Amino acid sequence: MSQKIKVLSFDLDDTLWPCVPTIERAEELLYQWLKEHVPSITQRYTKQQLREKRQFLLTEHSNLAHDLTRQRILSFEQLASEFNTTHSWIQPAFDVFHEARQQVTLFDDVKPVLDKLNDRYQLVSVTNGNASTIKTGVDHWFDFALNSETVGKQKSEPDIYLQVQKLTRVNAQQMVHIGDHPLQDVSGAQSAGVRAIWLNRQQQDWPLEVCEPDATIVNLHELPDALSRLD
Asked: Is CB count within 10 Å lower at the N or C end of the chain?
């Protein structure tokens, strides 16, 4: 079997678009919705306090680390119990957040680079988040879209990358993963035998001692040359 690179997998959040402003806007819209529909919650907790409560919840339910949707709904269920409300508001509240979470602004380098790569490689998206490639408008670039919720494991583990290989019918050496997170993207991909390119947009120092990226780029415009070197 040829070892030529045939498949590229891409992280989504902070690789194709900035994540923090997207989530902050979604949580602000959610908070305003709660203020109108379940005011007892916002009268007691600020937006930051609700975020901290949800983060603490994860420490108690580490088995849900791969499922951000379930995490957030469980946090709503706990609030419903705390404030002695029905659960009727939970799904509408989640829908408000989830729809707003899909309103992303792509980095400027995404369209020109993925347009070019799409002609040469199979592209697959992999994410720990609950962004939809369809609702975010990036699905036309990808042959497959995988997330940790459906796979059952985070990207720091090999499972999702092995699933990509199975779907695209390639071996690990024919695949390269691109992402911004040293652990979730680089270490995770390498744990499945996949080469990993670190997209270091902030030009930070490499933080891990256990591995190093196979290549480092500071924007996607540098990706084709990095792939040529790996190939």
From this structure: N
Indicate if 85 and 123 belong to the same structural domain: no
In a domain, residue 12? The reply is: yes
117 in the same domain as 63:
no
Q: What order of strands is seen across the sheet that includes strand 7-10?
A: 144-147, 122-127, 7-10, 175-179, 195-199, 215-217
Query: 109 and 82: one domain?
Result: no
**Contact 136/167 with Cβ under 8 angstroms?**
no
Report the distance separating Cα 158 and Cα 51, nearest Å: 29
Q: Which of 31, 36, 65 is nearest to 49 (CA)?
A: 31
Angle at which helices 19-37 and 47-60 cross, to 10°: 110
At 42-76, the pLDDT tens digits run 999 999 999 999 999 988 888 898 999 999 999 99
**Beta carbons within 8 Å of 119's beta carbon, 6+ residues apart:** none
* Residue 169 falls in which region: left (phi positive, over 0), alpha (psi -120 to 50) or beta: left
- Do 110 and 220 lie in one domain? The reply is yes
The answer to whether the beta carbons of residues 190 and 208 sit under 8 Å apart is: no
User: 128, 68 in Cβ contact below 8 A?
Assistant: yes
For the chain, what is the domain count?
2
Which tens digit of pLDDT belongs to each residue from 126-165? 999 999 999 999 999 999 999 999 999 999 999 999 999 9
Q: How far is CA 196 from CA 27, 152, 187, 192, 204, in A?
A: 32, 21, 8, 10, 17
